[in-house]
Amino acid sequence: MDTLALLADGFGIALTWQNLALALIGCFLGSVMGALPGLGPANGVAILIPLAFSLGLDPVAAMILLTSVYYGAMYGGRISSILLNIPGDEPALMTTLDGYPMAVQGRAGEALAISGVASFVGAFLATWGLVFLAPLLVKVALLFGPAEYFALFALAFATLGGIAAQNQAKSAFAAALGLGIAMVGVDGQTGVPRLTFGEVHLYDGIDFLVAIVGLFALSEVFIFLEHRGEGSGKGKAAEVGIGRIVPPLALLKSCTPTMLRSSFLGFVAGVLPGAGASLGSFISYSIEKRLVDRDGRFGNGDPRGVAAPEAGNNAAAGGALVPMLALGVPGSGTTAVLLAMLLALNITPGPLLFQNNPDVVWGLIAALFIGNFMLLAMNIPMVGLFVRVLLVPPRILMPVVAMVSFVGIYGISGSTFDLLVMIVFGVLGWLLRKLNVPLVPVILGVLLGNLMEANLRRALTISDGDWSALLASPLSIGLWLIAVVGFVLPVFLAPLLRRRMAMRKDEEGSIVD
Protein backbone atom coordinates (compact mmCIF):
# COMPACT_ATOMS: atom_id res chain seq x y z
CA MET A 1 0.00 0.00 0.00
CA ASP A 2 2.97 2.28 0.66
CA THR A 3 3.91 1.88 -2.98
CA LEU A 4 0.46 2.96 -4.15
CA ALA A 5 0.54 5.96 -1.78
CA LEU A 6 3.91 6.99 -3.20
CA LEU A 7 2.56 6.56 -6.72
CA ALA A 8 -0.39 8.81 -5.80
CA ASP A 9 2.13 11.43 -4.61
CA GLY A 10 3.88 11.01 -7.98
CA PHE A 11 0.65 11.82 -9.79
CA GLY A 12 0.36 14.91 -7.63
CA ILE A 13 3.77 16.02 -8.91
CA ALA A 14 3.24 15.02 -12.53
CA LEU A 15 -0.23 16.51 -12.92
CA THR A 16 0.79 20.12 -13.39
CA TRP A 17 0.19 22.06 -16.58
CA GLN A 18 3.92 22.39 -17.20
CA ASN A 19 4.65 18.68 -16.77
CA LEU A 20 1.63 17.65 -18.83
CA ALA A 21 2.75 19.99 -21.62
CA LEU A 22 6.29 18.60 -21.46
CA ALA A 23 4.99 15.02 -21.58
CA LEU A 24 2.86 15.90 -24.61
CA ILE A 25 5.78 17.61 -26.40
CA GLY A 26 8.10 14.73 -25.51
CA CYS A 27 5.64 12.12 -26.78
CA PHE A 28 5.17 14.00 -30.04
CA LEU A 29 8.87 14.63 -30.65
CA GLY A 30 9.72 11.05 -29.66
CA SER A 31 7.14 9.63 -32.08
CA VAL A 32 8.58 11.79 -34.87
CA MET A 33 12.16 10.80 -34.09
CA GLY A 34 11.27 7.15 -33.72
CA ALA A 35 9.53 7.26 -37.10
CA LEU A 36 12.62 8.54 -38.88
CA PRO A 37 14.75 5.55 -39.89
CA GLY A 38 18.19 5.63 -38.30
CA LEU A 39 17.56 8.09 -35.47
CA GLY A 40 16.04 5.75 -32.87
CA PRO A 41 15.31 6.39 -29.18
CA ALA A 42 18.92 6.80 -27.96
CA ASN A 43 19.69 9.45 -30.58
CA GLY A 44 16.34 11.14 -29.99
CA VAL A 45 16.97 11.48 -26.24
CA ALA A 46 20.59 12.58 -26.79
CA ILE A 47 19.55 15.32 -29.23
CA LEU A 48 17.02 16.75 -26.78
CA ILE A 49 19.25 16.78 -23.69
CA PRO A 50 20.69 20.23 -24.55
CA LEU A 51 17.14 21.49 -25.05
CA ALA A 52 16.15 20.35 -21.55
CA PHE A 53 19.08 22.29 -20.07
CA SER A 54 18.49 25.36 -22.23
CA LEU A 55 14.90 25.54 -20.97
CA GLY A 56 16.20 25.52 -17.37
CA LEU A 57 13.92 22.65 -16.37
CA ASP A 58 14.02 21.20 -12.85
CA PRO A 59 15.01 17.50 -12.52
CA VAL A 60 11.44 16.16 -12.46
CA ALA A 61 10.39 18.17 -15.51
CA ALA A 62 13.55 17.33 -17.45
CA MET A 63 13.17 13.60 -16.81
CA ILE A 64 9.48 13.71 -17.74
CA LEU A 65 10.40 15.34 -21.06
CA LEU A 66 13.16 12.84 -21.87
CA THR A 67 11.37 9.67 -20.79
CA SER A 68 8.35 10.80 -22.82
CA VAL A 69 10.70 11.10 -25.79
CA TYR A 70 11.98 7.58 -25.00
CA TYR A 71 8.51 6.03 -24.88
CA GLY A 72 7.41 8.08 -27.90
CA ALA A 73 10.39 6.88 -29.93
CA MET A 74 9.59 3.27 -29.04
CA TYR A 75 6.05 3.87 -30.33
CA GLY A 76 7.29 5.72 -33.43
CA GLY A 77 9.80 3.04 -34.45
CA ARG A 78 6.97 0.96 -35.88
CA ILE A 79 5.82 3.59 -38.38
CA SER A 80 8.70 3.26 -40.84
CA SER A 81 8.69 -0.53 -40.27
CA ILE A 82 5.10 -0.76 -41.45
CA LEU A 83 5.10 1.88 -44.18
CA LEU A 84 8.60 1.52 -45.63
CA ASN A 85 9.71 -1.97 -44.57
CA ILE A 86 12.64 -0.14 -42.92
CA PRO A 87 12.79 -0.55 -39.12
CA GLY A 88 13.22 2.76 -37.28
CA ASP A 89 15.56 0.91 -34.90
CA GLU A 90 16.65 -2.67 -34.26
CA PRO A 91 13.76 -3.74 -31.96
CA ALA A 92 11.27 -2.71 -34.66
CA LEU A 93 12.76 -5.22 -37.14
CA MET A 94 10.25 -7.95 -36.34
CA THR A 95 7.34 -5.54 -36.94
CA THR A 96 8.27 -5.36 -40.63
CA LEU A 97 7.46 -9.08 -41.09
CA ASP A 98 3.69 -8.63 -40.87
CA GLY A 99 3.38 -4.83 -40.78
CA TYR A 100 4.65 -4.16 -44.30
CA PRO A 101 2.55 -6.94 -45.90
CA MET A 102 -0.53 -5.39 -44.26
CA ALA A 103 0.47 -1.99 -45.69
CA VAL A 104 0.90 -3.45 -49.17
CA GLN A 105 -2.59 -4.94 -48.84
CA GLY A 106 -3.94 -1.42 -48.20
CA ARG A 107 -4.30 -1.98 -44.43
CA ALA A 108 -1.48 0.28 -43.23
CA GLY A 109 -3.83 2.32 -41.04
CA GLU A 110 -5.10 -0.85 -39.37
CA ALA A 111 -1.54 -2.11 -38.82
CA LEU A 112 -0.46 1.22 -37.33
CA ALA A 113 -3.50 1.29 -35.05
CA ILE A 114 -2.97 -2.31 -33.85
CA SER A 115 0.71 -1.62 -33.23
CA GLY A 116 -0.24 1.56 -31.32
CA VAL A 117 -2.63 -0.35 -29.07
CA ALA A 118 -0.08 -3.16 -28.56
CA SER A 119 2.61 -0.60 -27.70
CA PHE A 120 0.22 0.94 -25.16
CA VAL A 121 -0.56 -2.41 -23.53
CA GLY A 122 3.12 -3.41 -23.40
CA ALA A 123 4.31 -0.10 -21.97
CA PHE A 124 1.35 0.20 -19.54
CA LEU A 125 1.89 -3.26 -18.02
CA ALA A 126 5.67 -2.72 -17.91
CA THR A 127 5.19 0.53 -15.99
CA TRP A 128 3.14 -1.39 -13.38
CA GLY A 129 6.00 -3.90 -13.27
CA LEU A 130 8.38 -0.99 -12.65
CA VAL A 131 6.16 0.26 -9.80
CA PHE A 132 6.27 -3.04 -7.91
CA LEU A 133 9.63 -4.54 -8.89
CA ALA A 134 11.95 -1.53 -8.52
CA PRO A 135 11.32 -0.99 -4.77
CA LEU A 136 11.98 -4.72 -4.16
CA LEU A 137 15.25 -4.49 -6.08
CA VAL A 138 16.21 -1.44 -4.01
CA LYS A 139 16.00 -3.49 -0.80
CA VAL A 140 18.53 -5.96 -2.24
CA ALA A 141 20.74 -3.15 -3.54
CA LEU A 142 21.02 -1.62 -0.06
CA LEU A 143 23.14 -4.66 0.87
CA PHE A 144 25.77 -3.56 -1.64
CA GLY A 145 29.23 -2.39 -0.51
CA PRO A 146 32.07 -0.98 -2.67
CA ALA A 147 33.19 -4.45 -3.83
CA GLU A 148 29.64 -5.37 -4.87
CA TYR A 149 29.19 -2.08 -6.69
CA PHE A 150 32.45 -2.61 -8.57
CA ALA A 151 31.24 -6.08 -9.59
CA LEU A 152 27.88 -4.58 -10.61
CA PHE A 153 29.58 -2.01 -12.87
CA ALA A 154 31.69 -4.79 -14.40
CA LEU A 155 28.46 -6.72 -15.02
CA ALA A 156 26.96 -3.69 -16.76
CA PHE A 157 29.97 -3.43 -19.08
CA ALA A 158 30.02 -7.17 -19.75
CA THR A 159 26.37 -7.43 -20.69
CA LEU A 160 25.52 -4.14 -22.38
CA GLY A 161 26.60 -5.44 -25.77
CA GLY A 162 23.46 -7.53 -25.52
CA ILE A 163 22.70 -11.11 -26.32
CA ALA A 164 22.55 -10.20 -30.02
CA ALA A 165 25.95 -8.43 -29.96
CA GLN A 166 27.76 -8.88 -33.24
CA ASN A 167 31.25 -8.81 -31.81
CA GLN A 168 32.06 -8.99 -28.12
CA ALA A 169 35.67 -7.91 -28.74
CA LYS A 170 34.40 -4.65 -30.25
CA SER A 171 32.04 -4.17 -27.29
CA ALA A 172 34.96 -4.67 -24.90
CA PHE A 173 37.10 -2.25 -26.92
CA ALA A 174 34.31 0.35 -26.82
CA ALA A 175 33.95 -0.03 -23.04
CA ALA A 176 37.73 0.33 -22.59
CA LEU A 177 37.69 3.44 -24.78
CA GLY A 178 34.91 4.94 -22.66
CA LEU A 179 36.79 4.15 -19.44
CA GLY A 180 39.91 5.78 -20.91
CA ILE A 181 37.93 8.94 -21.74
CA ALA A 182 36.52 8.97 -18.18
CA MET A 183 40.08 9.03 -16.81
CA VAL A 184 40.81 12.37 -18.53
CA GLY A 185 41.26 15.18 -15.99
CA VAL A 186 42.82 15.75 -12.60
CA ASP A 187 42.71 12.71 -10.32
CA GLY A 188 40.55 13.72 -7.35
CA GLN A 189 42.58 11.65 -4.87
CA THR A 190 46.17 12.45 -5.87
CA GLY A 191 45.75 15.75 -7.75
CA VAL A 192 47.75 14.43 -10.70
CA PRO A 193 46.52 15.41 -14.21
CA ARG A 194 45.76 12.34 -16.35
CA LEU A 195 45.62 12.29 -20.17
CA THR A 196 45.28 16.08 -20.36
CA PHE A 197 48.34 16.66 -22.58
CA GLY A 198 48.92 20.04 -20.89
CA GLU A 199 45.53 21.38 -21.95
CA VAL A 200 43.96 23.21 -18.99
CA HIS A 201 40.45 22.89 -20.41
CA LEU A 202 40.71 19.13 -19.87
CA TYR A 203 41.62 19.39 -16.17
CA ASP A 204 37.93 19.08 -15.22
CA GLY A 205 37.52 16.03 -17.44
CA ILE A 206 35.22 15.63 -20.40
CA ASP A 207 31.58 16.52 -19.92
CA PHE A 208 29.57 13.42 -20.78
CA LEU A 209 26.79 15.49 -22.32
CA VAL A 210 29.28 16.82 -24.87
CA ALA A 211 30.41 13.24 -25.54
CA ILE A 212 26.84 11.94 -25.90
CA VAL A 213 25.63 14.66 -28.26
CA GLY A 214 28.79 14.34 -30.36
CA LEU A 215 28.75 10.54 -30.53
CA PHE A 216 25.05 10.16 -31.27
CA ALA A 217 23.68 13.33 -32.88
CA LEU A 218 26.66 14.75 -34.77
CA SER A 219 27.80 11.35 -36.04
CA GLU A 220 24.32 10.96 -37.55
CA VAL A 221 24.89 14.23 -39.43
CA PHE A 222 28.28 13.00 -40.66
CA ILE A 223 26.70 9.73 -41.84
CA PHE A 224 24.14 11.81 -43.75
CA LEU A 225 26.89 13.92 -45.32
CA GLU A 226 28.73 10.76 -46.32
CA HIS A 227 25.69 9.26 -48.06
CA ARG A 228 24.39 12.62 -49.34
CA GLY A 229 20.85 11.92 -48.20
CA GLU A 230 20.48 8.52 -49.87
CA GLY A 231 17.89 6.08 -48.51
CA SER A 232 14.88 8.37 -48.33
CA GLY A 233 11.74 6.28 -48.13
CA LYS A 234 9.64 8.69 -50.17
CA GLY A 235 9.13 6.26 -53.04
CA LYS A 236 8.13 3.31 -50.87
CA ALA A 237 5.82 5.36 -48.71
CA ALA A 238 3.82 6.25 -51.78
CA GLU A 239 3.32 2.55 -52.63
CA VAL A 240 1.28 1.57 -49.59
CA GLY A 241 -2.34 2.25 -48.78
CA ILE A 242 -3.38 3.68 -45.41
CA GLY A 243 -6.97 2.38 -45.36
CA ARG A 244 -9.05 2.65 -42.16
CA ILE A 245 -7.22 3.81 -39.06
CA VAL A 246 -9.63 2.40 -36.45
CA PRO A 247 -9.35 -1.38 -36.11
CA PRO A 248 -12.57 -3.38 -35.61
CA LEU A 249 -13.31 -4.52 -32.07
CA ALA A 250 -13.20 -8.18 -33.13
CA LEU A 251 -9.63 -7.69 -34.34
CA LEU A 252 -8.59 -6.06 -31.07
CA LYS A 253 -10.23 -8.90 -29.15
CA SER A 254 -8.35 -11.54 -31.17
CA CYS A 255 -5.03 -9.75 -30.55
CA THR A 256 -5.53 -9.21 -26.79
CA PRO A 257 -4.06 -12.56 -25.58
CA THR A 258 -1.07 -11.97 -27.87
CA MET A 259 -0.47 -8.53 -26.38
CA LEU A 260 -0.67 -9.83 -22.79
CA ARG A 261 1.72 -12.73 -23.35
CA SER A 262 4.19 -10.59 -25.30
CA SER A 263 4.13 -7.84 -22.66
CA PHE A 264 5.20 -10.30 -19.99
CA LEU A 265 8.01 -11.72 -22.13
CA GLY A 266 9.19 -8.25 -23.16
CA PHE A 267 9.25 -6.97 -19.57
CA VAL A 268 11.38 -9.90 -18.40
CA ALA A 269 13.77 -9.32 -21.34
CA GLY A 270 14.01 -5.61 -20.45
CA VAL A 271 14.84 -6.22 -16.79
CA LEU A 272 17.56 -8.77 -17.52
CA PRO A 273 20.93 -7.11 -18.07
CA GLY A 274 22.02 -7.29 -21.69
CA ALA A 275 18.85 -8.82 -23.11
CA GLY A 276 17.13 -5.62 -24.26
CA ALA A 277 14.23 -4.73 -26.50
CA SER A 278 15.59 -6.56 -29.57
CA LEU A 279 15.45 -9.91 -27.80
CA GLY A 280 12.07 -9.01 -26.26
CA SER A 281 10.55 -8.38 -29.67
CA PHE A 282 12.15 -11.47 -31.26
CA ILE A 283 11.09 -13.85 -28.49
CA SER A 284 7.57 -12.41 -28.42
CA TYR A 285 7.14 -12.88 -32.17
CA SER A 286 8.68 -16.36 -32.24
CA ILE A 287 6.68 -17.72 -29.31
CA GLU A 288 3.46 -16.19 -30.59
CA LYS A 289 4.04 -17.72 -34.02
CA ARG A 290 4.48 -21.16 -32.45
CA LEU A 291 1.43 -20.76 -30.22
CA VAL A 292 -1.23 -19.31 -32.52
CA ASP A 293 -0.08 -19.53 -36.14
CA ARG A 294 -1.67 -22.82 -37.12
CA ASP A 295 -2.56 -21.81 -40.68
CA GLY A 296 0.70 -20.13 -41.69
CA ARG A 297 -0.61 -16.55 -41.74
CA PHE A 298 2.34 -15.03 -39.91
CA GLY A 299 4.54 -13.25 -42.43
CA ASN A 300 1.61 -12.57 -44.76
CA GLY A 301 0.06 -9.67 -42.89
CA ASP A 302 -1.35 -11.19 -39.69
CA PRO A 303 -2.24 -8.45 -37.16
CA ARG A 304 -1.05 -10.70 -34.32
CA GLY A 305 2.40 -10.64 -35.96
CA VAL A 306 2.35 -6.86 -35.54
CA ALA A 307 0.93 -6.86 -32.01
CA ALA A 308 3.45 -9.38 -30.58
CA PRO A 309 6.76 -7.59 -31.32
CA GLU A 310 5.33 -4.15 -30.56
CA ALA A 311 3.98 -5.20 -27.15
CA GLY A 312 7.28 -7.02 -26.51
CA ASN A 313 9.65 -4.18 -27.35
CA ASN A 314 7.64 -1.50 -25.55
CA ALA A 315 7.38 -3.67 -22.43
CA ALA A 316 11.16 -4.17 -22.63
CA ALA A 317 11.61 -0.38 -22.69
CA GLY A 318 9.74 -0.12 -19.38
CA GLY A 319 11.62 -3.11 -17.96
CA ALA A 320 14.98 -1.51 -18.79
CA LEU A 321 14.11 1.39 -16.46
CA VAL A 322 13.98 -1.00 -13.46
CA PRO A 323 17.75 -1.63 -13.15
CA MET A 324 18.52 1.99 -14.11
CA LEU A 325 16.44 3.49 -11.31
CA ALA A 326 16.96 0.79 -8.67
CA LEU A 327 20.64 -0.05 -9.21
CA GLY A 328 22.00 2.84 -11.25
CA VAL A 329 22.91 0.41 -14.02
CA PRO A 330 21.25 0.98 -17.41
CA GLY A 331 19.44 -1.95 -19.01
CA SER A 332 19.65 -0.55 -22.55
CA GLY A 333 21.38 2.07 -24.67
CA THR A 334 18.66 4.67 -24.22
CA THR A 335 18.56 4.20 -20.46
CA ALA A 336 22.35 4.80 -20.48
CA VAL A 337 21.64 8.22 -22.01
CA LEU A 338 18.89 8.85 -19.43
CA LEU A 339 21.36 7.88 -16.70
CA ALA A 340 23.70 10.58 -18.02
CA MET A 341 20.91 13.10 -17.71
CA LEU A 342 20.25 12.15 -14.08
CA LEU A 343 23.95 12.45 -13.24
CA ALA A 344 24.10 15.83 -14.98
CA LEU A 345 21.24 16.95 -12.73
CA ASN A 346 23.28 15.93 -9.65
CA ILE A 347 20.97 13.00 -8.97
CA THR A 348 22.63 9.65 -8.40
CA PRO A 349 20.48 6.73 -9.57
CA GLY A 350 20.57 3.67 -7.35
CA PRO A 351 18.99 2.41 -4.15
CA LEU A 352 19.21 5.75 -2.36
CA LEU A 353 17.38 7.51 -5.19
CA PHE A 354 14.09 6.14 -3.84
CA GLN A 355 14.87 7.59 -0.40
CA ASN A 356 16.58 10.86 -1.33
CA ASN A 357 14.59 11.88 -4.41
CA PRO A 358 11.18 10.18 -4.22
CA ASP A 359 9.67 13.14 -6.07
CA VAL A 360 11.85 12.41 -9.11
CA VAL A 361 11.19 8.65 -9.13
CA TRP A 362 7.46 8.64 -8.51
CA GLY A 363 6.83 11.78 -10.55
CA LEU A 364 8.65 10.09 -13.42
CA ILE A 365 6.67 6.85 -13.08
CA ALA A 366 3.39 8.76 -12.92
CA ALA A 367 4.45 10.69 -16.03
CA LEU A 368 5.08 7.38 -17.82
CA PHE A 369 1.46 6.37 -17.18
CA ILE A 370 0.22 9.74 -18.41
CA GLY A 371 2.55 9.64 -21.43
CA ASN A 372 1.21 6.22 -22.37
CA PHE A 373 -2.34 7.48 -22.59
CA MET A 374 -1.16 10.53 -24.51
CA LEU A 375 0.71 8.34 -26.99
CA LEU A 376 -2.33 6.13 -27.53
CA ALA A 377 -4.57 9.15 -28.04
CA MET A 378 -2.02 10.84 -30.28
CA ASN A 379 -0.83 7.98 -32.43
CA ILE A 380 -4.10 6.70 -33.83
CA PRO A 381 -5.67 9.97 -35.10
CA MET A 382 -2.30 11.40 -36.15
CA VAL A 383 -1.23 8.49 -38.32
CA GLY A 384 -1.57 10.68 -41.43
CA LEU A 385 0.75 13.31 -39.95
CA PHE A 386 3.45 10.77 -39.09
CA VAL A 387 3.27 9.41 -42.62
CA ARG A 388 4.06 12.91 -43.87
CA VAL A 389 6.98 13.16 -41.41
CA LEU A 390 8.60 10.26 -43.23
CA LEU A 391 8.59 12.38 -46.38
CA VAL A 392 10.68 15.18 -44.79
CA PRO A 393 13.94 15.15 -46.75
CA PRO A 394 17.06 14.51 -44.66
CA ARG A 395 18.64 17.62 -46.22
CA ILE A 396 16.19 19.65 -44.10
CA LEU A 397 16.21 17.42 -41.04
CA MET A 398 19.96 17.02 -40.54
CA PRO A 399 20.83 20.75 -40.44
CA VAL A 400 18.18 21.07 -37.71
CA VAL A 401 19.86 18.24 -35.74
CA ALA A 402 23.25 19.96 -36.14
CA MET A 403 21.86 23.34 -35.08
CA VAL A 404 20.14 21.92 -31.97
CA SER A 405 23.38 20.16 -31.00
CA PHE A 406 25.62 23.23 -31.32
CA VAL A 407 23.20 25.75 -29.81
CA GLY A 408 22.28 23.36 -27.00
CA ILE A 409 25.84 22.53 -25.94
CA TYR A 410 26.96 26.16 -26.14
CA GLY A 411 23.89 27.14 -24.13
CA ILE A 412 24.86 24.68 -21.36
CA SER A 413 28.60 25.36 -21.12
CA GLY A 414 29.21 28.67 -22.91
CA SER A 415 32.54 27.22 -24.01
CA THR A 416 33.77 27.11 -27.60
CA PHE A 417 36.28 24.47 -26.49
CA ASP A 418 33.39 22.14 -25.66
CA LEU A 419 32.04 22.66 -29.19
CA LEU A 420 35.41 21.55 -30.59
CA VAL A 421 35.37 18.52 -28.28
CA MET A 422 31.85 17.72 -29.48
CA ILE A 423 33.02 17.79 -33.11
CA VAL A 424 35.90 15.47 -32.22
CA PHE A 425 33.38 13.09 -30.63
CA GLY A 426 31.17 13.40 -33.71
CA VAL A 427 34.06 12.30 -35.94
CA LEU A 428 34.93 9.55 -33.45
CA GLY A 429 31.30 8.37 -33.47
CA TRP A 430 31.24 8.35 -37.28
CA LEU A 431 34.48 6.35 -37.38
CA LEU A 432 33.27 3.84 -34.78
CA ARG A 433 30.01 3.34 -36.67
CA LYS A 434 31.96 2.72 -39.85
CA LEU A 435 33.92 0.03 -37.99
CA ASN A 436 30.71 -1.42 -36.46
CA VAL A 437 31.91 -0.62 -32.95
CA PRO A 438 28.90 -0.04 -30.65
CA LEU A 439 28.64 3.47 -29.20
CA VAL A 440 26.69 2.68 -26.05
CA PRO A 441 29.58 0.97 -24.18
CA VAL A 442 31.69 4.08 -24.89
CA ILE A 443 29.06 6.26 -23.25
CA LEU A 444 28.69 3.82 -20.37
CA GLY A 445 32.46 3.97 -19.82
CA VAL A 446 32.42 7.78 -19.77
CA LEU A 447 29.45 7.78 -17.38
CA LEU A 448 30.40 5.07 -14.93
CA GLY A 449 34.21 5.12 -15.21
CA ASN A 450 34.79 7.50 -12.29
CA LEU A 451 32.23 5.77 -10.07
CA MET A 452 33.75 2.39 -10.87
CA GLU A 453 37.23 3.68 -10.04
CA ALA A 454 36.02 5.28 -6.80
CA ASN A 455 34.39 2.01 -5.66
CA LEU A 456 37.49 0.00 -6.56
CA ARG A 457 39.69 2.37 -4.57
CA ARG A 458 37.27 2.32 -1.64
CA ALA A 459 37.13 -1.48 -1.58
CA LEU A 460 40.93 -1.73 -1.71
CA THR A 461 41.37 0.92 0.98
CA ILE A 462 38.98 -0.92 3.32
CA SER A 463 40.78 -4.23 2.71
CA ASP A 464 44.24 -2.65 3.00
CA GLY A 465 45.11 -3.41 -0.62
CA ASP A 466 43.87 -7.01 -0.61
CA TRP A 467 42.42 -7.70 -4.10
CA SER A 468 40.62 -10.83 -2.88
CA ALA A 469 38.17 -8.46 -1.14
CA LEU A 470 36.52 -8.04 -4.56
CA LEU A 471 35.38 -11.67 -4.29
CA ALA A 472 34.79 -11.83 -0.56
CA SER A 473 30.97 -11.94 -0.42
CA PRO A 474 28.52 -14.38 -2.05
CA LEU A 475 26.77 -11.38 -3.64
CA SER A 476 29.90 -10.15 -5.41
CA ILE A 477 30.78 -13.70 -6.51
CA GLY A 478 27.28 -14.05 -7.96
CA LEU A 479 27.60 -10.75 -9.81
CA TRP A 480 31.00 -11.71 -11.24
CA LEU A 481 29.60 -15.07 -12.41
CA ILE A 482 26.67 -13.35 -14.14
CA ALA A 483 29.10 -10.89 -15.74
CA VAL A 484 31.28 -13.69 -17.12
CA VAL A 485 28.28 -15.66 -18.42
CA GLY A 486 26.75 -12.49 -19.86
CA PHE A 487 29.95 -11.71 -21.74
CA VAL A 488 30.66 -15.23 -23.01
CA LEU A 489 27.12 -16.37 -23.83
CA PRO A 490 26.58 -13.99 -26.80
CA VAL A 491 29.72 -15.39 -28.44
CA PHE A 492 27.80 -18.64 -28.95
CA LEU A 493 24.19 -17.45 -29.01
CA ALA A 494 24.43 -14.26 -31.10
CA PRO A 495 25.31 -15.91 -34.45
CA LEU A 496 22.48 -18.40 -33.96
CA LEU A 497 19.98 -15.69 -33.02
CA ARG A 498 20.93 -13.39 -35.91
CA ARG A 499 20.80 -16.27 -38.39
CA ARG A 500 17.31 -17.22 -37.25
CA MET A 501 16.12 -13.60 -37.42
CA ALA A 502 17.59 -13.22 -40.93
CA MET A 503 16.10 -16.53 -42.09
CA ARG A 504 12.68 -15.60 -40.82
CA LYS A 505 12.96 -12.17 -42.45
CA ASP A 506 14.04 -13.71 -45.78
CA GLU A 507 11.48 -16.49 -45.77
CA GLU A 508 8.50 -14.38 -44.78
CA GLY A 509 9.59 -11.11 -46.38
CA SER A 510 10.09 -12.76 -49.76
CA ILE A 511 6.35 -13.30 -49.97
CA VAL A 512 5.75 -9.60 -50.36
CA ASP A 513 8.89 -8.48 -52.20
TrEMBL record:
<feature type="transmembrane region" description="Helical">
    <location>
        <begin position="264"/>
        <end position="287"/>
    </location>
</feature>
<feature type="transmembrane region" description="Helical">
    <location>
        <begin position="149"/>
        <end position="165"/>
    </location>
</feature>
<keyword id="KW-0812">Transmembrane</keyword>
<protein>
    <submittedName>
        <fullName>Tripartite tricarboxylate transporter permease</fullName>
    </submittedName>
</protein>
<feature type="transmembrane region" description="Helical">
    <location>
        <begin position="477"/>
        <end position="497"/>
    </location>
</feature>
<feature type="transmembrane region" description="Helical">
    <location>
        <begin position="439"/>
        <end position="457"/>
    </location>
</feature>
<feature type="transmembrane region" description="Helical">
    <location>
        <begin position="324"/>
        <end position="348"/>
    </location>
</feature>
<feature type="transmembrane region" description="Helical">
    <location>
        <begin position="111"/>
        <end position="137"/>
    </location>
</feature>
<feature type="transmembrane region" description="Helical">
    <location>
        <begin position="407"/>
        <end position="432"/>
    </location>
</feature>
<dbReference type="Pfam" id="PF01970">
    <property type="entry name" value="TctA"/>
</dbReference>
<dbReference type="InterPro" id="IPR002823">
    <property type="entry name" value="DUF112_TM"/>
</dbReference>
<feature type="transmembrane region" description="Helical">
    <location>
        <begin position="208"/>
        <end position="225"/>
    </location>
</feature>
<feature type="domain" description="DUF112">
    <location>
        <begin position="20"/>
        <end position="444"/>
    </location>
</feature>
<feature type="transmembrane region" description="Helical">
    <location>
        <begin position="360"/>
        <end position="387"/>
    </location>
</feature>
<feature type="transmembrane region" description="Helical">
    <location>
        <begin position="172"/>
        <end position="188"/>
    </location>
</feature>
<feature type="transmembrane region" description="Helical">
    <location>
        <begin position="47"/>
        <end position="71"/>
    </location>
</feature>
<keyword id="KW-1133">Transmembrane helix</keyword>
<keyword id="KW-0472">Membrane</keyword>
